[in-house]
Design a protein that fits this description.
Strand content: 25-35%
Shape: globular
Order of helices and strands: HEEHHEHEEEHEHEH
Helix content: 25-40%
CATH architecture of the domain at 53-183: 3-Layer(aba) Sandwich
Number of strands: 8
CATH class of the domain at 53-183: Alpha Beta
Distance between the termini: 36 Å
């Protein structure tokens, strides 16, 4: 693995890493249950040094811009992104939302430092958004704790309507660092226009 030029913007490095490592061509079943002819397995790119450093810079900057005090979302998709915010220097808590309340230990649904209602301002993060379902479930879990959501950030938006669904449910700005158009511009289902 070679390092990119120092002056190459973080976003360009992230897109290049996703193209090189995360794009999987072939029939797959998405978390929504839908079948697709390709997958963006973002963890293949962002859990390598170049992709992680680029992500860390971008997420930390966005967390600071939103005045977030916590960064996290549904476990697995959000885990490396929340950790990248810390690695990028954001002064935030990282947290992960479980799919179900833990049946042992402290019985928590949200893992990590305790989120404080009326104090913490959360930036929800997700790796790849298709329908937005897992992000909306994480949003509901955080709101159930009485904690404010200040924004939602996706690593890659598949442009299948999930971003709009998230923004409606969240009532706060939704942003994506990249889209499938940048990662796989020649995909067979691309809508031209």
């Amino acid at each position: 693995m070679s390092s990119p030029p120092a002056d190459e913007p973080a976003r360009d490095r992230l897109v290049a890493a996703l193209r090189a490592h995360a794009l999987v061509i072939g029939e797959v079943v998405l978390s929504s249950g839908a079948t697709a002819q390709y997958l963006v397995d973002a963890k293949r790119a962002i859990l390598l040094p170049v992709g992680f450093r680029a992500l860390a810079q971008l997420v930390a900057a966005h967390a600071t811009e939103c005045s977030a005090t916590a960064v996290g979302g549904m476990t697995m998709g959000a885990d490396p992104i929340a950790c990248a915010a810390l690695a990028g220097g954001a002064l935030v808590k990282a947290f992960f939302v479980r799919t179900e309340v833990k049946a042992h230990g402290l019985g928590r649904r949200i893992e990590g430092p305790v989120l404080v209602a009326g104090e913490d301002r959360c930036l929800l993060v997700e790796d790849v958004v298709t329908t937005g379902g897992s992000t909306i479930r994480a949003l509901e879990a955080v709101r159930d704790e009485g904690v404010e959501i200040v924004g939602v950030l996706a690593l890659c938006d598949r442009l299948a309507g999930g971003g709009a669904a998230i923004e409606r449910a969240a009532g706060v700005p939704y942003r994506s660092l990249t889209t499938i158009d940048e990662i796989y511009p020649e995909r067979p289902d691309r809508v031209s226009g």
